Amino acid sequence: MLRRTTISVLSICILSGCVERRLTVNTEPDGVLTYLNNQEIGRTPVTRNFTFYGNFDVQLRKEGYQTRKTSKHVTAPWWQWPPFDLVAELLPLRLQDNREISFTLKPASTQPADPVALLDRAAEMRGKLQSSPNTRRPVPATAPTK
Question: What pairs with residue 98 in β-bridges?
Fold first, then answer.
């Protein structure tokens, strides 16, 4: 009976090990709508749990500010590298890895677009498109030559 109780208690201790991974996104200004890997996670400052380390695609949006799309890499701590990660997951301890990434948004331009400059840029782009080899019709091989 004592042996069974001891094994049960040890099993519960071993299985109670846990690693908590949290990512906090801060911005200047606060209240920015935040997307992490194309999923809305809330308004900053916002904290979310995550499972895997690596690259996170971050999109930040707020009215009156330029939208920012970027990628941030989160590197695993040494105790999450193989084979140490197996031991860390099984230890009867609660390990925490809190990561924080911060961004500063730039105010959006409040000047109205100059219509003449906009039309000039459109004409320039049209010229580039028409001169592209992808838009030219190929000359048929059987076409007579004069």
Answer: 22
**For residues 131-146, average pLDDT:** 64
Report CA torsion sign: 33, 39, 42, 44. Answer: negative
Whether pTM > 0.85 for this model: the answer is no
Q: What angle do CA 54, 56, 57 make, to 5 degrees?
A: 150
Please give the Cα distance from 41 to 60 (Å, whole number).
11
The beta strand positions in 44-106, using DSSP E, are 46-49, 54-61, 68-74, 94-104
**Structural domain boundaries in the chain:** 16-131
Question: Is residue 13 pLDDT above 60, yes or no?
Answer: no
Residue type (1 letter), 18: C
- φ, ψ of residue 16 to 5 degrees: the values are -85, -5
Q: DSSP assignment, residue 30? A: S
CA–CA gap between residue 10 and residue 31 (Å, rounded): 46
Q: 39: part of which helix (H) or strand (E)?
A: strand 39-43
- Decide: 66 and 107 in contact? Cβ < 8 Å: yes
Domain 16-131 matching CATH 2.60.40: the answer reads yes
Residue 83 has phi, psi (to 5 degrees) of -90, 0
Q: Which two tokens stand for residue 111?
A: 């000047």
The pLDDT of residue 132? 60
